[in-house]
# Entry
Amino acid sequence: MPDLVVVARYASRSECVVAQSVLRAAGIEALMPDFNVLTSDFDPSMMESGWRLMVRQEDRVMAQSILKDAQESAAESD
# Structure
């Protein structure tokens, strides 16, 4: 199994799902390890550190760049 690293954290599940979709569209596999666990029995105290988005170590730099560009594009369109 490849080494996974947290590439970003989000305050809401929906933000994390959108970011995951952006990365997948760019060909980078991204995982939300907390997705199923927290939706079944949600306790807000479990999310003190945010929703984690993880990628392979070798994809980290590219993923961060893609997410940064997507964030900047969204901010410009507002």
Summary: The first strand starts at residue 4 and ends at 10. The chain has one domain: 4-77.
